[in-house]
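Ops channel
N.P.: pipeline sanity check, posting one input/output pair.
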């Protein structure tokens, strides 16, 4: 069928409109797939998306394990909102537990106050996984996600990329001895959850030139603290073994 001039013109216009629509659809698709959240120190985010658990099966990564208490202290899971600059959302392999101190002596600077800071102040990217004081433990970032606290950027096998960061409170109204015990109990729980041994316990100063945890180091108590973790770990391992034996015996009857 032969088209007249008007028909040919309409066909040309329709073809142009279809091309524009297709281009817009492609742009929308790529916009939706663009990762959200802040960029990380050193280079762009490697693994991001709208749901961290959706990429938990990525090679070399692990699934997050929620721990509900440590040494009788309930753990409050108050995760930083997805998309906050303080939560890049990158899933990674867990290799270390990194111990810090807040170095904040203000009387009200307990675990709850630091949790509020991380949740509400989005002016910075620094964050960590847990804050511990003498009576509470706050969980800020899922264990299998990166948090920027070790000061070593994206160093391979480094504290940022592979460490669970724990901040111990040192405020004046806080019982430091109880905080040490609570942190030791938490570290032991994490070691069991992620199959880590004592060689995987690190201090912040192991990853950068900074005396942190400051009070623990300056008082010469690092060996004492590591022994506290070791004792808690051995005790919990025995408890797990005993529980497994009881389960096996019960199932065999």
């Amino acid at each position: 069928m032969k088209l007249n001039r008007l028909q040919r013109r309409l066909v040309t216009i329709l073809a142009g409109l279809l091309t524009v629509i297709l281009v817009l659809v492609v742009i929308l698709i790529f916009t939706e797939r663009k990762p959200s959240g802040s960029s990380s120190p050193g280079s762009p985010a490697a693994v991001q998306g709208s749901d961290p658990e959706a990429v938990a099966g990525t090679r070399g990564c692990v699934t997050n394990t929620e721990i509900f208490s440590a040494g009788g202290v309930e753990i409050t899971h108050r995760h930083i909102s997805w998309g906050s600059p303080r939560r890049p959302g990158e899933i990674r392999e867990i290799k270390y537990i990194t111990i810090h101190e807040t170095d904040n002596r203000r009387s009200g600077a307990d675990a709850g106050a630091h949790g509020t800071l991380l949740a509400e102040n989005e002016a910075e990217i620094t964050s960590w996984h847990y804050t511990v004081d003498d009576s509470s433990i706050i969980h800020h970032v899922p264990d299998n996600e990166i948090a920027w606290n070790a000061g070593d950027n994206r160093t391979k096998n480094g504290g940022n990329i592979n460490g669970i960061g724990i901040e111990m409170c040192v405020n004046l109204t806080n019982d430091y001895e109880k905080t040490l015990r609570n942190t030791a109990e938490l570290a032991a729980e994490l070691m069991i959850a992620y199959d880590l041994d004592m060689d995987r316990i690190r201090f912040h100063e192991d990853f950068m030139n900074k005396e942190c945890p400051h009070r623990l180091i300056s008082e010469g108590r690092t060996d004492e603290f590591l022994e506290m973790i070791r004792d808690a770990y051995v005790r919990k391992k025995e408890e797990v073994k005993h529980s497994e034996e009881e389960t096996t015996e019960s199932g065999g009857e």
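N.P.: looks fine end to end. The first strand starts at residue 69 and ends at 70.
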